[in-house]
# Entry
Amino acid sequence: MTGPHPTVTLSADEARRIALRAQGLLGAPDRRSGVRGMLRHLGAVQLDTISVLARSHELVPYARLGAVGRGTVEAAYWNRDRDGRPHSFEYWSHAACVLPLEEWPHFAFRRRAYRARPLWHHDLPEGSYEQVIKQLRAEGPLTATELGGAKRTGEWWDWSASKVAVERALMYGEVVCVERRGWKRVYDLAERAIPGDLLHDDLDDTECVRRLVAQAGQALGVGTRSDIADYHRLRADQVDAVLADSGLVPVDVEGWGRPAWADAAALATAPRGRHRTTLLSPFDSLIWERPRTERIFGFTHRLEAYVPKARRVYGYFAMPVLAGGRLVGRVDPARAGRTLVARQVTLANRRAVPDVARALVEAAGWVDCADVRVERVDAPELREPLIAELAALTA
# Structure
């Protein structure tokens, strides 16, 4: 793709700090707008079933806002206003994500694309889809269990006909999830749950994609075309069609070796302020795209939860450690009662020891653990210094 010649050149370090600030990880956290403000700014928070210290959609605000209560996080996503208006909904963005309610109209292009597909995953018995819609209309919001059962057998992939039908309706936009009970989705008719000022799919595909490209650029701060496309899993040709009028500014980033675009507001002021020191969810949007993470941080990130145990390098749920604007290590955590167990710790170097210790102690306090136990450190000579640092912080 060709476009206007960039008039702004950024060093790799400037780009890294712009990206950190855009993700809410550099500078004072915006505690007044809280979790909902964070969600609006990021545009999407990924959901995942894995829960080690907490689920990923809880870890993302923790990384940015500090020890905000887990109940507060859940309430911010799922509680409604006094007038019954929800604040968020679930849909397919980068993956299954919590999305700000005001973005509902901008996913119309994806709902239309799903509706245009002749089939989706499972065969569906005749009448099942219509029965789910009829039941929701008559009974109000329901979980998959209340609709007739989520599974046919104990296997996680073996969905019941009602579960297949309601998930298809969710993808089509006839049904929406704006609430969870525990970890269960609560399904409702979109016409009932989405406020009328947002409900109708009257934006064309170009308008939808233009908005999501601009939003991705704001959340990334600066990124390549592939970075921007990956944020909401857009196609490269979709991004190409709207980049020129998205409001993003072409820039050169030293060392990137490819065209990049930045949020104009991100270029207006130099990124300064205090860096967060924290454990990051493997599903955190700072590190969603592996090539971007390697390009910006020189850090190879890979979730190994679905890798056979014998082939894991860093552990089941290795959480990158962010400190001083760098990714300085990894921790594969677990919990044993009120002890946070660092099953495997990987450190970039000896200088990372105090930062990793601090991140562990803060995370332990957040999940109500009284102490931290270190099992394995990949550099054995750093195990005792890490244990000593943890002891000093908890004395």
Q: What stands out?
A: The two ends are 57 Å apart (CA to CA). The first helix runs from residue 12 to 22.
